[in-house]
Design goal:
Elements: E1 26-27, H1 34-44, H2 49-53, E2 55-59, E3 72-73, E4 76-83, H3 110-120, H4 127-135, E5 162-163, E6 167-168, E7 198-204, H5 209-212, E8 227-230, E9 249-252, E10 261-262, E11 266-267
Parallel strand pairs: 7-10
Antiparallel strand pairs: 1-11, 2-4, 3-4, 5-6, 7-8, 8-9
Amino acid sequence: MGSQDAPAYPEDGEGPVRRVQLGPFAIDPHCVTNARFRVFAEATGYLTDAERYRASFVFGGLLPDDFPPTRAVAAAPWWREVPGADWKHPEGPQSDLDGRDEHPVVHVSWNDATAYCAWAGRLLPTEAQWEYAARGGLDGMPFPWGSELLPGGRHRMNVWNGSFPQHNTRADGYLGTCPVDAFEPNGYGLSNMTGNVWEWTADWFHPTWHATGPRTDPAGPPTGTARALRGGSYLCHASYCRRYRVSARMGNTPESSTGNIGFRCTGPTGP
């Protein structure tokens, strides 16, 4: 686990490089889709945190030009708090899921993801499980397919292309999210382990815990204030966020939701 390169963001705590041992586990080939999350919500009547708070955070570049002014995040003004934004209305009340059944569900908090997992008899992966799966059998590579961002000039993930946040060339084919299986899978048959949407993991986030923590089936610290996210999203760009790599990580509070966070499930092998 980890990266031997100079840390892109020291506060993220990607290093040190370390070898860990994991027991067998199964992981979904892609993120939970809007269609699948709808089955859960309709079966249980579950309301997400964004629905209960009646707002969530949307990338401003996805909003109509005439969208009324709303509160922006001071440190990242491209994020806008949009009343009525939730998993069924990704860009606010004027939007819907038409044509996006096979896109990853977004505007789901860690609390929402674990509620879905409990209903489905699944779990969120630990950071170690997630990184092992994302590497696809490769050792020490920054991406699920190898060392090059664009091998042979081909786009292998959904990230920002162009000048962030003003102009996205859509060279990879997308502005916002893409279908969960849109790009070629890695060596384990897993799609979009980097780019598209950040993915919640089970672990509490801490920048240094893993430096001296357990090496067999490691998990995060027993308590914390933020949960660990992995994989980057369609908003990642080298100019400000090189977190579209298999070792990259960040934390967010368990009740937080945005238009670029989703999740995939894991579980034990066997019957």
